[in-house]
């Protein structure tokens, strides 16, 4: 049997190239549909042979393009007739609600993951970062990031599978895949966002809320395809007809992933940059290939490293494969090898005996291009002989994943690799490379075991040729096991249980009503409070305090709710019988958007289950497009409720460019729910938190249609205009969104004019910087794409709306990017000719800071300095410097501005609170500043209690210090377990918050003592 393929990885690997080829074969208007058909064919009938899928996918696409062209004339003839006769149908409202329910369940499941997996899932799918960018931001090797992605998806699959074990359990997989458009034609709204996210990686064109929806689509795609192949009940695959004489697909090269398509019949000239010559002759380049070069040096002596092994892999894949051989270094330490052109991203790994492994990433290379990665100084290191044993019995333990955390200095585009290794059956951890001579923090990632000791290991220089032995002790994580039943003692499946409050369930009960909670983080508290965020159709259950870890016989009984009568009528008083409902019940999580009791209800009457009078609101979702969903109705008491729904009306929309009608434009009418509220980081000038509305997470599609030759599309719309909008999508151009449109009273079409568009071309003179440190941001109205650079520093935009455009250069700094204000340009987009711009990073005014850390005695091993740039809006980490054994440090590339400095130890993370100091650095640009920094280590223990004095647990807390929030997103904040230890602690006042809408705590000013303890009162959520 052919093993399941990772089609999500293949989508990432080949998606852009297939889309470019589809544009060349069938035109941009049909490209998305053609590529989607390729993936459906791959789902239904994956190839039986092993090896790369690129050629097979291109052959399938060629057949689909041939069928598309054959049916094009027939389609055009039918389309005009269909538009004239009847308005287009739209997605079933119930499907929309079901998709939204799955979205919220998916986000909740991501939120409930352990931090290591939650962070990479969120950054990969919700922030759109490729694995290399996540690795660069976190200092982890790409292999670790990919491993966590795979294991995180596996945990999501496990969680969602458990959550779906109750109602509609048999339909959970199909429900998830259908809700996100996998295995069927996507709804128009999903297609508009998801295809943008898939086909133009790195060019994010969506508002914040839509990004979340598209990100959830990507997660669901990965899970849905995985589940699809895992489903043993799936129907047999269909046979894909192929002709032996079918023409092979041409090779497609692109200068910009969103626009320019060239059929590569001749090689593109190589980069004009002058990379260092290789020490040996390259083999003849294969057709459609690019070249990658670099040089390895000994960091201590500066001498070239000969005989080092260099491997590479396609980084856009999620699965972990052995590295493909690149080249061994020559006497001068140089290497050079070829890779296929057009890969989304390539990771290069360099390994030399006695040295710490380094890696770099590149990608997006056109045919014939050369990317020189530059010099990679490799530090000396030592192998570790590691065994994992049980803390009580001393017997070896196989299976735990041991992680080594240490500072990973960057040299140009090269990063040092951390280690993440799984123990074998005999407890040994076969590390494949040396560790640097530093102090490493140890951690156990996931699994059934937790670390007992030691917490750190110092890699010594004594006998570096011999492995250093290390014994790590672990123990099994504590669990709580229980049973959930109804009043008659029958087991209940799908009930959510959590130790982290009412936000989201950690586990769901199985079919036999049993649940098992695992203690995922170390704690000194022997007991925990259990919450029940999802009790389904049963009444909420009060939290259970002081449940001891190790409990096995817990029994929870849920009380059934009393059916609540409702009657649904239209605006004339006639009963409406085809509908479903959604409930929002205070004190529960997943009932808010769950579609319930869908079907035909005689006389419009329904006995609603799961209602808690006075704490539940209801919304009616009709199953027919002619009717609008109702607003939320509060169910205050047990009196029957009559819900009135309004009838929709047909309407027409005329899309024109100038006076000419636009054929084939997609017209959608949507309902925008109440805007989300996003908390911004606190301004130094405003002590209060601010909230600003953004686009809703998931606009509800009302209807969709394409314009005919006369430029007119017929759709449905709601009578009320509040929160309603019309969206127009024209191939290759930004979306047009008209909010609260006013349709002509005489029944004539609503006229929407498509503005002209143009492009921006440019080049960045890198002045020694790596191209992946630089991003170009374009701001043209509400359109804000981000572009990556080619190896020669060039870039080209997709279509931009005519008019003013701001072009910014963003430099990677810390965990984000910062704009170079003095290099920003203002352009005017003219549809008649491209706008061109050149940036010179050599003209950028940056500063260097060097000096010594002054402290009592020698500085702690592994001490790191964070440089935090403070603006009127926020404070954010921009650069990091390691402190040497002699206390010296140096950092370069700092932009002008005011900086705070903070200190971290290896066990700390700057995503939470670095030890910010009151001393400031004011840089005006171009300086080489010598400054000594004082560091006095302080440890602050914060105890969190409720107003009644009971310990506060299960909440996430954020801190406010130095003008910024730490972390900026509470999703990554630590979970309270009564105490929070900050070591080293800031010398600046700290405020704590993050408990819903609760106010910030009073400022906490650490004392001059080396250790201090404070108590913070947390309002109950």
What do these coordinates show?
The protein has 10 helices and 71 strands. Helix 4 (93-111) crosses helix 8 (172-179) and helix 5 (115-126) packs across helix 7 (142-163).
Highlighted features:
disordered N terminus, single chain, 1021 residues, 71 strands, 36% strand, alpha+beta, 10 helices, 5-stranded antiparallel sheet, globular, 6-stranded antiparallel sheet
Concise overview:
The chain is of the alpha+beta class and 1021 residues long. It contains ten helices and 71 strands. It is 17% helix and 36% strand.
Structural class of the helix and strand makeup? alpha+beta
- How many DSSP E strands? 71
* Rg on CA atoms, Å: 30 Å
Mean pLDDT: 76
Tell me the β content.
35-45%
Oligomer: single chain
Residues in helices, as a percent range: 10-25%
Morphology call? globular
Given as residue ranges, the uncertain stretches (5+ residues, pLDDT < 50) are: 1-5, 82-91, 165-172, 181-210, 225-286, 675-697
DSSP helical segment count: 10
Largest sheet: spatial strand order: 5-4-7-8-14-13
Instruction: Give the termini separation.
Output: 52 Å
Biggest β-sheet description: 6 strands, antiparallel
Give the arrangement of secondary structure elements.
Blueprint (H helix, E strand, L loop, with lengths): L6 H20 L1 H17 L9 H32 L7 H19 L3 H12 L4 H8 L3 H22 L8 H8 L8 H12 L8 H23 L21 E3 L6 E3 L25 E10 L10 E6 L9 E5 L5 E7 L5 E6 L6 E5 L7 E9 L2 E2 L1 E7 L10 E5 L4 E2 L2 E3 L2 E4 L5 E2 L5 E2 L2 E7 L3 E5 L2 E3 L9 E9 L2 E7 L10 E3 L8 E2 L5 E5 L8 E8 L9 E5 L5 E4 L6 E7 L7 E8 L9 E6 L4 E4 L7 E7 L10 E3 L5 E5 L3 E9 L2 E2 L4 E6 L5 E3 L11 E3 L6 E7 L5 E6 L6 E6 L6 E4 L10 E4 L3 E2 L1 E6 L8 E6 L6 E3 L5 E3 L3 E2 L1 E11 L2 E4 L5 E5 L5 E6 L6 E8 L9 E7 L4 E8 L5 E7 L2 E8 L10 E9 L4 E3 L2 E2 L4 E7 L7 E4 L1 E4 L2 E3 L8 E3 L1 E4 L8 E3 ...
Parallel strand pairs: 3-9, 11-21, 22-28, 29-35, 36-45, 47-55, 56-62, 56-63, 64-71
Antiparallel strand pairs: 1-2, 3-6, 4-5, 4-7, 7-8, 8-14, 10-17, 11-16, 12-15, 12-18, 13-14, 18-20, 19-21, 22-25, 23-24, 23-26, 26-27, 29-32, 30-31, 30-33, 33-34, 36-37, 36-42, 38-41, 38-43, 39-40, 43-44, 46-51, 47-50, 48-49, 48-52, 52-53, 52-54, 56-59, 57-58, 57-60, 60-61, 64-69, 65-68, 66-67, ...
Helix pairs in contact: 1-2, 1-3, 2-3, 4-8, 5-7, 5-10, 6-7, 7-10, 8-10, 9-10
């Amino acid at each position: 049997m052919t093993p399941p393929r990772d089609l999500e990885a293949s989508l990432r690997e080949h998606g852009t190239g297939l889309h470019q080829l589809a544009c060349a074969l069938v035109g941009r208007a049909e490209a998305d549909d053609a590529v989607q058909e390729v993936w459906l064919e791959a789902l239904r009938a994956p190839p039986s042979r092993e090896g790369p899928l690129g050629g097979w996918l291109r052959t399938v696409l060629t057949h689909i393009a041939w069928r598309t062209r054959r049916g094009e004339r027939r389609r055009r003839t039918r389309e005009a007739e269909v538009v004239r006769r009847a308005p287009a149908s739209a997605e079933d409202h119930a499907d929309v609600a079901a998709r939204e329910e799955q979205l919220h369940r998916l986000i909740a499941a991501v939120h409930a993951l352990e931090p290591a997996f939650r962070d990479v899932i969120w950054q990969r799918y919700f922030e759109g970062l490729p694995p290399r960018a996540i690795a660069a931001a976190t200092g982890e090797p790409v292999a670790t990031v990919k491993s966590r992605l795979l294991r995180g998806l596996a945990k999501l699959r496990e969680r969602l599978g458990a959550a779906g074990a109750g109602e509609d359990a048999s339909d959970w997989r199909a429900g998830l895949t259908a809700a996100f458009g996998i295995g069927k034609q996507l709804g128009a709204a999903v297609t508009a966002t998801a295809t943008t996210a898939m086909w133009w990686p790195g060019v994010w064109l969506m508002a914040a809320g839509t990004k979340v929806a598209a990100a959830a689509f990507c997660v669901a795609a990965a899970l849905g395809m995985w589940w699809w192949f895992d489903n043993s009940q799936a129907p047999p695959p269909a046979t894909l007809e192929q002709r032996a004489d079918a023409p092979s697909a041409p090779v497609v090269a692109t200068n910009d992933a969103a626009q320019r398509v060239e059929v590569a019949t001749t090689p593109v000239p190589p980069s004009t940059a002058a990379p260092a010559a290789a020490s040996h002759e390259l083999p003849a380049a294969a057709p459609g290939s690019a070249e990658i070069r670099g040089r390895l040096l000994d960091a201590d002596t500066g001498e070239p490293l000969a005989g080092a092994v260099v491997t590479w892999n396609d980084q856009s894949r999620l699965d972990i494969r052995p590295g493909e051989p690149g080249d061994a270094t020559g006497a001068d330490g140089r290497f050079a090898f070829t890779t296929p052109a057009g890969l989304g991203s390539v990771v290069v790994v360099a390994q030399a005996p006695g040295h710490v492994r380094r890696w770099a990433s590149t990608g997006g290379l056109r045919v014939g291009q050369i990317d020189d990665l530059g010099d990679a100084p490799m530090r000396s290191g030592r192998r570790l002989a590691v065994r994992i044993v049980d803390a009580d019995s001393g017997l070896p333990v196989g299976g735990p994943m041991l992680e080594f955390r240490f500072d990973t200095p960057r040299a140009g585009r090269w990063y040092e690799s951390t280690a993440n290794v799984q123990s074998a059956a005999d407890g040994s951890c076969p590390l494949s490379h040396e560790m640097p001579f530093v102090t490493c923090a140890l951690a156990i990632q996931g699994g059934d075991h937790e670390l007992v000791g030691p917490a750190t290991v110092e890699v010594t220089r004594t006998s570096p040729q011999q492995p250093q032995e290390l014994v790590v002790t672990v123990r099994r994580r504590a669990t709580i096991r229980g049973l959930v039943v109804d009043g008659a003692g029958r087991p209940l499946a799908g009930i959510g249980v959590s130790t982290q409050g009412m936000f989201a369930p950690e586990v769901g009960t199985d079919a036999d009503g049993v649940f098992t909670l695992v203690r995922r983080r170390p704690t000194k508290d022997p007991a925990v409070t259990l919450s029940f965020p999802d009790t389904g159709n049963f009444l909420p259950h009060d939290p259970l305090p002081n449940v001891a870890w190790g409990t096995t016989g817990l029994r929870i009984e849920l009380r059934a709710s009393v059916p609540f009568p409702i009657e649904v009528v239209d605006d004339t008083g006639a009963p409406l019988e085809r509908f479903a409902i959604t409930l929002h019940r205070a004190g529960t999580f997943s009932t808010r958007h769950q579609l319930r009791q869908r079907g035909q209800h005689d006389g419009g009457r329904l006995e609603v289950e799961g209602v808690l009078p006075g704490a539940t609101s209801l919304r009616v979702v009709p199953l027919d497009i002619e009717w609008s969903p109702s607003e939320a109705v509060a169910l205050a008491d047990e009196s029957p409720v009559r819900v009135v729904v309004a009838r929709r009306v047909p309407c027409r929309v005329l899309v024109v460019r100038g006076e000419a009608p636009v054929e084939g434009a997609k017209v959608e009418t949507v309902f925008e729910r109440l805007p989300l509220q996003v908390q911004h980081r606190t301004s130094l000038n405003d002590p209060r938190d601010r909230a600003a509305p953004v686009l809703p997470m998931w606009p509800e599609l009302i209807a969709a249609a394409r314009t005919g030759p006369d430029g007119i599309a017929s759709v449905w719309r709601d009578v009320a205009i509040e929160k309603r909008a019309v969206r127009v999508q024209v191939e290759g151009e930004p979306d047009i969104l008209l909010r609260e449109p006013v349709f002509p009273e005489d029944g004539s079409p609503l006229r929407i004019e498509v503005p002209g568009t143009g492009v921006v071309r440019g080049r960045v003179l890198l002045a020694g910087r790596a191209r992946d440190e630089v991003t170009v941001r374009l701001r043209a109205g509400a359109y804000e794409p981000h572009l990556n650079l080619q190896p020669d520093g060039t870039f080209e935009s997709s279509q931009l709306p005519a008019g003013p455009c701001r072009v910014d250069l963003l430099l990677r700094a810390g965990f984000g990017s910062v704009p170079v204000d003095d290099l920003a340009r203002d352009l005017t987009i003219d549809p008649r000719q491209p706008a061109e711009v050149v940036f010179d990073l050599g003209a950028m005014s940056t500063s260097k800071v060097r000096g010594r850390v002054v402290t009592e005695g020698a500085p702690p091993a592994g001490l790191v300095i964070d440089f935090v740039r403070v603006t009127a809006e926020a404070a954010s980490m921009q650069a990091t410097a390691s402190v040497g054994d002699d206390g010296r440090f140096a950092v370069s590339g700092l932009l002008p501005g005011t900086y705070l400095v903070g200190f971290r130890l290896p066990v700390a993370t700057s995503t939470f609170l670095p030890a910010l100091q009151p001393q400031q650095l004011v840089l005006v640009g171009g300086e080489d500043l010598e400054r000594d920094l004082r560091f006095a280590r302080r440890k602050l223990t914060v105890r969190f209690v409720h107003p009644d004095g009971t310990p506060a647990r299960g909440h996430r807390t954020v801190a406010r210090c130095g003008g910024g929030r730490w972390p900026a997103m509470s999703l990554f904040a630590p979970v309270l377990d009564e105490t929070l230890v900050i070591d080293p602690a800031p010398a600046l006042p700290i405020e704590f918050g993050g408990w819903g809408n609760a106010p910030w705590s009073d400022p906490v000013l650490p004392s001059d003592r080396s250790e201090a303890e404070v108590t913070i009162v947390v309002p109950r959520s």
